[in-house]
Write a structure and sequence with these properties.
With 343 residues, this protein is of the alpha/beta class. Helix content is 41%, strand content 20%. Helix 1 packs antiparallel against helix 3, helix 4 packs antiparallel against helix 5 and helix 7 packs parallel to helix 8. It is elongated, with a radius of gyration of 29 Å.
Length: 343
């Protein structure tokens, strides 16, 4: 058995905390009872749930909690390798991770908003192989082409402006790295370039476009922001108060503008399209506007399918919770109270 989200298993540490909380509760209850009255007197005048029943209920709750956590980690089993013909294209998503992507004209910031949209796009791209290139001043492949979309989404979620690349915006470098990943592809070749600035590092973008054209790579460019730009927030923000923005030596806010002309030229030269994102609405409709053209059929490709076991764990957890709920009525405290009263 394997786990799709194995890191969530760390939450199992909550299980012993349930026992610890129950022990603390029982100790506090006993101290309060002793202060109120002697054990014999208390048994005569008040209901008292037996300690054994509390411990049993705690065990049932702890088991249910453990099963729920395991279910959220998505256990998988019954691995089956199948071969099937799937139509799709190869897509490289080149995502700008420069500091300007921390600007907050999109909610909560540009990079997070783009990552959420990219993950939605990945979910709808069945049959496509997808790879990720992250770039700022340099460009690096953080995920090669793969049909394992779950892994791609996980890598996208981990992208941040703290990637191990030098500062700046190297659009030309991102194109070259992406083209290099696509050049051996036997399917349709598409790159989606997402950036919010102008190229100021590395290879000139239009020079890199020539190699993209030679390899038959169609590039869709997505520009985030406007020509005028938006103030760049500081990396460190106060816990309270307004957002702090970077300033130059003269006290003016530093803003990053969008090079729309270059992005339009890249798309036109390669047969793609340019999209501009200036608000949340534009972002929501972005990928519905990008159509998959020129799809070709892969040869028989091996795909690993696994059974999802999470529903079984959730079902068993529900049984334990039901048992805990009904256990309260197995030995009602009223019965115990009646037995302890003198006739």
């Amino acid at each position: 058995m394997s786990f799709y989200n194995g890191t969530l298993l760390a939450l199992l540490i909550l299980v012993p905390l349930v026992f610890l909380a129950t022990w603390w509760h029982m100790q506090s209850r006993e101290k309060a009872k002793r202060k109120f009255a002697s054990p014999d007197l208390f048994a005569r005048i008040a209901n008292s749930e037996p300690a054994s029943r509390i411990r049993t209920r705690t065990i049932l709750i702890a088991i249910a909690l453990a099963l729920i956590i395991v279910a959220f980690a998505r256990p998988q089993g019954g691995e089956l390798v199948v071969e099937e013909d799937v139509e799709g294209i190869d897509i490289i998503l080149a995502i700008d991770v420069s500091r300007s992507m921390l600007a907050r004209d999109l909610v909560p910031d540009r990079l997070t908003a783009i990552k959420n949209t990219v993950n939605s796009f990945i979910e709808s791209s069945y049959g496509d192989r997808i790879g990720i290139v992250a770039f700022a001043g340099d460009a690096v492949t953080v995920c090669p082409l793969t049909t394992d979309h779950g892994t791609v989404q996980m890598i996208v979620d981990r992208l941040s402006t703290e990637e191990q690349v030098r500062p700046g915006t190297g659009i030309g470098n991102a194109i070259l790295v992406g083209v290099n990943r696509l050049k051996n592809s036997e399917a349709g070749r598409v790159m989606i370039l997402l950036t919010d600035g102008e190229s100021n590092k590395g290879v000139e973008p239009l020079d890199a476009v020539e190699q993209a054209k030679a390899e038959g790579v169609r590039i869709y460019t997505v520009g985030i922001g406007t020509r005028e730009g938006t103030p760049l927030p500081e990396l460190e923000q106060p816990y309270f108060g307004p957002t702090q923005y970077r300033q130059d030596e003269e006290g003016e806010f530093i803003s990053v503008g969008l090079d729309i002309d270059t992005l339009e030229a890249i798309a036109d030269e390669t047969g793609g399209r340019f999209f501009q994102i200036t608000n949340q609405r534009d972002l929501q409709t972005l990928y519905s506007s990008i159509t998959h053209e020129g799809e070709v059929q892969f040869q028989q490709r091996k795909i690993v399918r696994r059974d999802e076991l999470a529903p079984y764990f959730l079902f068993i957890a529900c049984l334990f919770l039901i048992m805990e709920a009904f256990y309260t009525y197995i030995t009602p405290s009223e019965v115990r109270r009646a037995k302890t009263r003198p006739a």
